[in-house]
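Record now logged for everyone:
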Amino acid sequence: MAEIKYEVVKKGIKEAIERGDYQVGDKLPTESDLMVKYQVSRYTVRRAVGELQNDHYVYRIQGGGMYVDDWQDSSTKRVINNKMIGVITTHLADYIFPSIISGIDRAVSARGYSLIISNTHNNREKEAQSLKRMLDNQVAGLIIEPTQSAMPDPNIELYQKIEDAKIPTVFINAHYSELNAPYLETKDMEAEAAMTSYLIDQGHKQILGIFQVDDMQGTHRMRGFINAYMEHPEISYLNKTIMYQSGQDMSKVFKRVSDIMSAPDHPTAVICYNDELAIQIMDVIRSLNLRIPEDVSITGCDDFVLGRYLKPRLTTLEHPKEKMGLDAGSMIVKLIEGETVESIKYDMPPHFNESVVANKD
């Protein structure tokens, strides 16, 4: 089987260093020189050098080039930081994430561990940076919320490297089936199907569902919405769906919602991907002089704390948040200490509040 280009570059540089062609502290050829030598792109060179950095064969000086690291002593000088656990999430300081991270911190600190926290902003490049940072820090274990988990992942090789290095890893909110790691997730599809069925039982035949579809939570919630409608073939054709991705211009999504809800026969209920979106959609609906819930019922998901203070209070599905964090923290410590663990799937109990009323039409 032919070697991948970056592996050829990595192997060539590594062998030159181990042969003694370059001594510790020697400056290596420039990226441009390596591109010419190996007939590869700059990206390929950088990927090879990045892996050599992780293996402590090479280090960079900003603006000064690449140099040979003290690779022969790296095995004795660099040891696993046995009391540091890495946490990578798509967000940190808002929505449900402070509660999840607080739970993780409570669980691991009780066992003498500390956290290194990184935020990807649901961006794949930032995810790669976060994973590399954790590898560089030689963490004892990792708790990861995958970025854009419903999409093909260009960072899967980094994840595979983590798995090959036998770094204990736990996934939260979503996981990759090709990786053999435990996970903690919510029963999104089942919960959203139950919420949709509840609205249908309340007389809402035409419901608008709005879902983020680049993560697995969103795709599962959308499937639950559609599955519930399929149980009612006499009205299944009446459902409306809007899909969007993270990072998308949400003003376009809101414009589509406005257009649909401006029609005389507009949906009488709206199901939103999460509570954060539901709060924004409530503003859109009110801008059309429609009343909530008298004209339009609305539901969210995750039981975001702000949803409890809305007027009317938001109907939602409960995300376990801090319990997920506590369980994830306990699980990663058990893995680090050699115990076996099982993945967890949480129920999402409904909170039926004032933002939903029966449709009498």
Observations:
- The CA atoms of residues 156 and 176 lie 9 Å apart.
- The chain is about 40% helix and 15% strand.
- Residues 75-80 have pLDDT under 50 and may be disordered.
- The radius of gyration is 25 Å.
